[in-house]
Amino acid sequence: IGTLQDAMNMACCGKVICYGCFQEKRRVIHTANFEREEEEERTGIEEIMMKETCSFCRAPVSTSREEMMLRIEKRMKVNDPLAYYQAGGCYQDGRHVPQADVLKALELNHRAAELG
Description:
Blueprint: E1 7-9, E2 16-18, H1 19-43, H2 65-77, H3 81-93, H4 102-115
Antiparallel strand pairs: 1-2
Helix pairs in contact: 2-3, 3-4
């Protein structure tokens, strides 16, 4: 993995995965779903959807901003510096939180730096 800009932090388990690997996994899942749907149309088999999951812990990918923040907060409770960094980014940009809060973002980023 090059830099954090080339990768993403999985909020469920705190692992880092490169974007290329993440996108390839998504492509494989969507291809398998498409092929399964074609097969079901031909045979009448009940639809079964493959859900996207974390490559490391197999947790389902979060579907809401509340769920994403709960996962980040869970990782923060075990002093995960990447979780603090990610939460700081969320508060700075206003992503996954009700509104942006630059002071909260600064506080979270300082804590991430303290943890390493």
